[in-house]
Amino acid sequence: MEHFWSQVFLGNTLKDWAIAVGIIVVTLVGLRIARKLVLNQLRAWAKHTNTTFDDFIISLIDRFLVPYLYLLGIYFGVQTLQLSPKADRVADVVILFISTYFIVRMIASTISYFINSYVGAHTGQDGRKKQARGIVVLVNILIWVIGILFLVDNLGYNITTIITGLGIGGVAIALATQAILGDLFSYFVIFFDKPFEIGDFVITGDKLGTVEYVGIKTTRIRSLSGEQLIFSNTDLTNSRVHNYKRMDKRRLVFTFRISYATPMDKLEKIPGIVKKAIEAQPDTTFDRAHLLSFGDFSYNFEVVYFVISPDYNMYMDRQQAINFDMIKTFEKEGIRFAYPTQNLIIGNGNGNGSPKSSMEQMTQGAQPFENQVNKHS
After folding, report:
1. Comparing 51 with 210, which gets the higher pLDDT?
2. Which of helix, strand or coil describes residue 125?
3. Whose CA is closest to 78, among 29, 22, 154, 31?
4. How far apart are CA 314 and CA 249, in angstroms?
5. What is the rounded radius of gyration, in angstroms, for the C-alpha atoms of the chain?
6. How far apart are the C-alpha atoms of 318 and 84, rounded to whole Å?
7. Are 280 and 323 in contact, with CB atoms under 8 Å apart?
8. Cβ(294)–Cβ(250) under 8 Å?
9. Which of 80, 125, 252, 288 has its CA 20 to 30 A from that of 154?
């Protein structure tokens, strides 16, 4: 029996091979049993929690950690054997590649989970998930670059020269693509700071519309007239953006003119009439109505009220209803809106500077223009 175990096969005795296979089998069987018992127990516990983080950790263990431990078990079993330098090097390189792959995947999955959780905690999830995909791709690229550099360094290569070259090349690329990188950083600002989101109605400068898409370089806005406006992200983050979707209520100011022919008792009724017209509308709050100033041909009134909604169509409906109500009430009260009034005097000199004839054209209140001609002898 001792002679049997002492037989050499591929540079190792059968006893050494049996020990290596035993380590591998025990490791694989033990991990499989632990996977069934422990993970099933953890999944049952996770079902009773309110957070999804524990479910993510269990999924991470199941997808990456357990397969990695399987491979480590095989590697440690093989390491008990006497291998040639070349075979030993191949084994080390393979386990290094596998370790780098699983570590990078675990880190990338963790970051993706936190980004998606951050997005899911806010409103407008669909639009922000589209934005998150771009950030996840960029983060994955960065993590893989770092992982590859780590792998190359552990393979024995000097990465100082590579990093220096990347640094010089990075500076050159940064200078050549300064605008693109600026838009990229502005994209991160838009994503995390959230000055606006997809579906928001915004105004920037003299352009206005609804945000349709936020990309890595550009943001696209659908204007009211139908065309698509394309802005660079840097332009938007450097501009003053009016976001009307986040307006809790809309403050409205409007003015109207009343004829100078209106009696005082009628003028005093106007603020109350306007207040009643505004308060009769749902989702509106009256603030004030005042005789503001004396114009060239009218009394000028100013009114302020609030619509408890950011919806523009609702505001227009309420304003229209208020206008109709005011017109009806003014007609009943005999209050007339003012028309522009112009007085013209035309005369001829009679030698001593006195006018020979004059004509007066007046428009007053809601009455049409009238021509009056007065002749002087």
Report:
1. 210
2. helix
3. 22
4. 11
5. 41
6. 87
7. no
8. no
9. 80
Asked whether residue 372 carries a pLDDT value surpassing 70, the answer given is no
189: phi then psi, degrees, rounded to nearest 5: -60, -45
Tokens at 116, concatenated: 């998606």
Asked whether the beta carbons of 232 and 183 are under 8 A apart, the reply is yes
Find the farthest-apart pair of alpha carbons in the chain and give their distance in angstroms, rounded. 154
Judged against a pLDDT cut of 70, whether residue 102 lies above it is answered with yes
**153's torsion region: left (phi>0), alpha (psi -120 to 50) or beta?**
alpha
Instruction: Answer yes or no: are the C-beta atoms of 208 and 223 closer than 8 Å.
Output: yes
C-alpha distances in Å from residue 154, one per residue of 61, 93, 97, 151: 25, 9, 10, 5
Structure tokens that stand for 306 in this block: 């609030």
Whether 212 and 220 have beta carbons less than 8 Å apart is answered as yes
Domains defined for the chain, CATH in brackets = 2-163 (no CATH), 180-242 (2.30.30.60), 250-333 (3.30.70.100)
pLDDT-derived band at 374 (thresholds 50, 70, 90) equals very low
